[in-house]
Structures are given as structure tokens and as C-alpha cells.
Amino acid sequence: MSKYYKYDIKPKLPIQVIKGGTKLMTCGMSFKVDLYSGCEHDCCYCYAKHLVTIYSKWKKDPMKLNLKLLEQMFVDAFENNRKGQIYDLMRNRFALRAGSLTDNFQEADLKYKVGLKLLELLDKYDYPCIINTKGIIITKPDYLKLLKRLAKKQLVIVQYSLISLNEGLLKELEPGAPPPKERLKALKTLADNGIPTQIRIAPFIPWVTINCEDLIKEAKKVECKAIIVEFLRIPPKKPNEEKSTNEIIYNATKKVYGKNINLWKRYQKEGGKLHRGYMKFPFEKRLKIYLKLKELIEKEGMDFYVCNELKPDLNEKPFDCACCCGVENYKGFKNFNTASSNKIYKMLKEKGKISLNDVKKNLKSLDWNLFEKQWDKGVYEDLLYKCKKEYHQGKIIYSNL
Question: Which CATH number does 15-336 carry?
């Protein structure tokens, strides 16, 4: 057992459905594969880092998970016909999201090669996957060869997390991650090899990640297909944390911009409130910024998406988008968690009212049992704009006000 982790008592399956919070209800890509615990990028705003710190110390030196266990999961799903929820999902090739709680393609993978093994397994079993990374090692020959094979079968999208072009700022906020120029170079290399790419401005930090226009133009130059934007939710400081996210940003802005920015207080001043454990920027003001960014991004010929938002219909142009990653563009992504915010909100707008049966007839969920429990709790009243819970013949339905 790792000295850093209280929860590392027994091996966890590297492939899992994200069941915490309301992620299953909001995210189309809630089937994830994480191959490390800890991450050398050490980003101050990382939600996984914040959650781990509740229980123990965050580990900058990543610890790889069991490589044989990863291989065995694919063998059990496709060759041994093993029973179980996760194996059923795998047999139906529900798309995976690689990099939910860590970066599977951080520099450490040159030593451990579990990320490389994942690519080999995806290629062998024709399995669709979105890769979320800041790592540049995927442009190395062994990785690139496999990514090219997957791209030809339309089974992969690579998303790079890049919130700013300001190298000094990123050194403070993401001290272990590659510089922005190296990430842009990697994006261009991938595009030149026929691998579809996206950029995640996640998180977008008001007053801090400024000059997004320049980032958008650079994204266009490296032939990025889309940009996904998600606002920073500020976690409160936990007892085990040396410094909170807010404190790190406060010190970083003094060093980089010559003035301290207290985001927590600024969020509050703008009308932000604590919601589900995080301080959030007020929605109406988020929306104004989203619309401005949407215009700039689409002007450059790229698709614009928002992630985990109250108005996911921002994602409906240029096509009917059921997932903020835009996987409908790719033939290999046939199955994913469509019973989530994007499609639910679209159904509400079209029908005015929807029942659980409406959803189950038309959409796909990774876990209907959990979905039904969350549905009955009325969570969409809190997750979607102007959505109201009602009772009809003793059952919960939702209406669009």
C-alpha cells in the first residue's frame, strides 16, 4: 500500500464508470480509464488533486496501476466473455475517456509505458477513446504510430488542456506540465499525422487567463478541430492542503501581473456562490463570456463546446451535439453516455416535459440504476437552466420553464 494513499488498500480497476457526484447525469464521456495515481503536472486547480487531498497527501511522483490488470480487462471483455457491468459496456464499445483523475501520458509513461500499452489494446480491439492530456510524449514514434492507426479507424480524439499562452503564469499554476509552445507543437504534429485534436480551456479563469483571442488563433494555426471551455470552480481549502487553489492563484498573479487577484472574493463580488462544494462564477455572467468566445472560435472555423453547463444547447451548432467532445463527427464513437445534460436539455426544449421513460426509450446510459436514483432525487432541477421537477401519476418528470 502506498504511504500516501489511505484508499490504495486493494487494486482498483483502471476502467470504471464515473459514479461520483452527478457526473453520470451531465457528461457524455463518463466511462474512464486512469492508469496512474498522482500526476507530475501538479496543477493547482486539478479537481482530482483536491479530492485526493481530502483523505491524504497528493503525490507528484505518479504511481502506475497494475498493467496486467488493464490487459486482463480487455481479454475478459472480448475473449472470455466475462459477466459484469463494465465488461458489458466494453463489449458494446462504449467510448472511453483516458485521463479523468490523472494524465496517462505524462513523462513518467516513458518509463512505465502503461499509456503506450493502452494504445496497443485500443488498436487491437478497435476501441474508441478520447485522450485528455498535457503530455507531449504522444508525439514520439511508438505512440504516434498507434494514434495514426486509431485515427484511420476514427477511434481517437486527442484533447490538449491549455488554458493560456503565458508561460510564466503556467509555471506557477501547472509547475510540472510542458510549456504552452511545446503543447502547441505537439498538436501540430498530431494534426499533420491525421489525428483529430481539440483544446480544452479548462479551467477558464476570469481576470487570470486573459488574451484568449491569441490562444484561439494559435489553435487555428495548429489545425485544432474544436475548443472546449469550462469555468474554474474554486474549491475551499482542505486541512491537508499546504495552499489552496485560491492562494496559489493569488500569489501567481502577483508574480506574473504585478497584482494579487483574490478569485474567491471576486467571484463573491460578482454574485458567485458556493454550490455543491465549490465557489462558482454566476451563470448569467458565464454565459456572456461563453457567447463571446463561441463567436471568436467559430469565426476561426473551429467548433465550440461548453462542459458541464446549465445551458448545454450552446453545443448545438454546427450539429446536434450529444456530448461536449463532439464525438458524433466520428464513426467509431457509436456508443457513449447520451443520457446526459446535452440530450436531456434538447428533449426538454422540444417536448416541454419529459419522463424517465422518454429518456430510456431514446438515449443510452452507462448505468440506468444510478441514473434512475439521481433522476428521482430531482438533480436536473439543479443542473439545467430553468428546469423544474414535477410529479405526474406519482412519478417525477421534468419541465422546461
Answer: 3.80.30.30
